[in-house]
């Protein structure tokens, strides 16, 4: 069976590239699963989403992806993330800390878009690292 | 004579310490170019992908009717993003960019368009404030190590002003393109209204695929185009950073060479002066001895 060629890139570097059997990402419309021979799609990804790349035989590649796009064409899948981090690279303690700070300021009543975004991002990073949130 | 010798010694030691400084600057710049080039390389995949995505959308949707792509019939003002460096010691780097920006300003004014400068880099900002030119916006402090957040900040300001009713109608960017260690060119590009440029000629490529959009074409375009502009600006910043280091290296290398040449000339002059002094001393001693001998002979 044909494989997907997947590339996860952020503006400052290429985060990961390789072959995969399936890619699951979260667009603004909901989760989308891409398998080989998928029709060309260009989707907008949500802030603080988790990307899952299924590879036969190996463990899944999980990454926290903040905003950006997924583009699929001819078995090429590119994830253009404004910022992204592999689950294995996530600093769990720092992410927990960030989440806690965001939550405590939300509880304190100073809720604005920035803080909500920070909470979302921290949650995505924790989920990518395989932590319970 | 002794005075001249002392003077030359002092000048040599001062030129030597200058040469030491410029040599160090040269070495620092050389190592920084490599890093700047790596950062440039690392940004290439994203830029290629986003260009592909934009051209995919533009070729898929028959009428791209987005504020960022529509050309105004009567443009009356244009934003010019001028990318300069924060620090000097880099030869003609900033002068070249500013000269090109002035030329563009002239061209725009011929067309009846007012040019509004947006300036990156301390050198460009001081250039503009010294001449009392009003700037649409200015940023500094990151010319050597631009991050994507910096590019985003600049793009936000530009796009904001572009979308305003009485804001700018076009955005041009004047920056330095890094071709190689030896060649850097100043380039002028229009980034808005959008002209989709392929970073590499992909003419042999097949027809772009017919995309489906999630959630829909308009919304995808809405979030894709600003990202595209950001990535163009980020690319310009990175190229400019690499070019800055390259021209700094070159300027410092020629400064070091000049200093070494000066040291050579001064050393020669100093040796001549020393030799002349010794010769004179000898002839004085000989003359004195002769005079004594003559006086002794006269007594006898």
UniProtKB/TrEMBL annotation, chain A:
Protein keywords: ATP synthesis, Cell membrane, CF(1), Hydrogen ion transport, Ion transport, Membrane, Transport
HAMAP family (alphabetical): ATP_synth_epsil_bac
Bilayer topology term: Peripheral membrane protein
A Pfam family of this chain: ATP-synt_DE_N
Subunit structure, as described in the record: F-type ATPases have 2 components, CF(1) - the catalytic core - and CF(0) - the membrane proton channel. CF(1) has five subunits: alpha(3), beta(3), gamma(1), delta(1), epsilon(1). CF(0) has three main subunits: a, b and c.
Function: Produces ATP from ADP in the presence of a proton gradient across the membrane.
Family the entry assigns: Belongs to the ATPase epsilon chain family.
ATP synthase F1 complex delta/epsilon subunit N-terminal domain residues: 4-84
Protein name: ATP synthase epsilon chain
UniProt-annotated location(s): Cell membrane
From TrEMBL, chain B:
Topology in membrane: Peripheral membrane protein
InterPro entries named among the record's database cross-references: ATP_synth_F1_ATPase_gsu, ATP_synth_F1_gsu, ATP_synth_F1_gsu_CS
Keyword RNA-binding: no
Swiss-Prot/TrEMBL keywords: ATP synthesis, Cell membrane, CF(1), Hydrogen ion transport, Ion transport, Membrane, Transport
Coiled coil: none
Record's subcellular location: Cell membrane; Membrane
Superkingdom in the source lineage: Bacteria
Function description: Produces ATP from ADP in the presence of a proton gradient across the membrane. The gamma chain is believed to be important in regulating ATPase activity and the flow of protons through the CF(0) complex.
Subunit structure: F-type ATPases have 2 components, CF(1) - the catalytic core - and CF(0) - the membrane proton channel. CF(1) has five subunits: alpha(3), beta(3), gamma(1), delta(1), epsilon(1). CF(0) has three main subunits: a, b and c.
Family stated for the protein in its record: Belongs to the ATPase gamma chain family.
PANTHER family: ATP SYNTHASE GAMMA CHAIN, ATP SYNTHASE SUBUNIT GAMMA, MITOCHONDRIAL
Protein name: ATP synthase gamma chain
Species per Swiss-Prot/TrEMBL record: Microtetraspora malaysiensis
Lineage, top ranks: Bacteria, Bacillati, Actinomycetota, Actinomycetes, Streptosporangiales
């Amino acid at each position: 069976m044909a494989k997907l060629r997947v590339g996860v890139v952020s503006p400052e570097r290429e985060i990961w590239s390789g072959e995969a059997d399936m890619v699951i990402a979260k667009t603004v419309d909901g989760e989308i699963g891409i398998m080989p021979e998928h029709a060309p799609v260009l989707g907008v990804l949500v802030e603080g989403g988790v990307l899952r790349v299924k590879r036969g035989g190996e463990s899944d590649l999980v990454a926290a992806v903040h905003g950006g796009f997924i583009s699929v064409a001819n078995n090429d899948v590119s994830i253009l993330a404004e910022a992204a981090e592999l689950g294995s690279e996530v600093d769990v303690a720092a992410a927990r800390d960030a989440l806690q700070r965001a939550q405590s300021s939300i509880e304190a009543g100073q809720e604005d878009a920035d803080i909500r975004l920070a909470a979302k991002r921290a949650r995505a990073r924790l989920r990518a690292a395989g932590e319970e949130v | 004579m002794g005075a001249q010798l002392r003077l030359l010694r002092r000048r040599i030691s001062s030129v030597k310490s200058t040469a030491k400084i410029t040599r160090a600057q040269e070495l620092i710049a050389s190592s920084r170019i490599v890093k700047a080039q790596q950062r440039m390389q690392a940004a290439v995949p994203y830029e290629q992908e986003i260009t592909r995505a934009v051209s995919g959308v533009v070729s898929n949707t028959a009428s791209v009717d987005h504020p960022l792509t529509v050309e105004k019939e009567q443009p009356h003002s244009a934003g010019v993003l001028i990318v300069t460096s924060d620090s000097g010691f880099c030869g003609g780097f900033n002068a070249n960019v500013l000269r090109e920006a002035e030329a563009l300003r002239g061209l725009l004014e011929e067309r009846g368009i007012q040019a509004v400068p947006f300036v990156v880099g301390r050198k460009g900002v001081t250039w503009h404030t010294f001449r009392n030119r009003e700037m649409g916006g200015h940023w500094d402090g990151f010319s050597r190590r631009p991050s994507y957040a910096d590019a985003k900040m600049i793009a936000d300001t530009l796009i904001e002003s572009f979308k305003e009713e009485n804001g700018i109608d076009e955005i041009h960017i004047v920056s330095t393109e890094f071709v190689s260690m030896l060649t850097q060119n100043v380039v002028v590009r229009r980034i808005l209204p959008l002209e989709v440029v392929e970073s590499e000629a992909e003419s042999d490529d097949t027809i772009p695929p017919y995309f489906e959009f999630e959630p829909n074409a308009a919304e995808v375009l809405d979030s894709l185009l600003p990202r595209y502009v950001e990535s163009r600006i980020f690319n310009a910043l990175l190229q400019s950073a690499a070019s800055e280091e390259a021209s700094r290296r070159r300027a410092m290398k020629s400064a070091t060479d000049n200093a070494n040449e000066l040291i050579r000339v001064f050393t020669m002059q100093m040796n001549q002066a020393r030799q002349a002094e010794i010769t004179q001393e000898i002839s004085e001693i000989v003359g004195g001895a002769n005079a004594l001998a003559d006086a002794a002979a006269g007594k006898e």
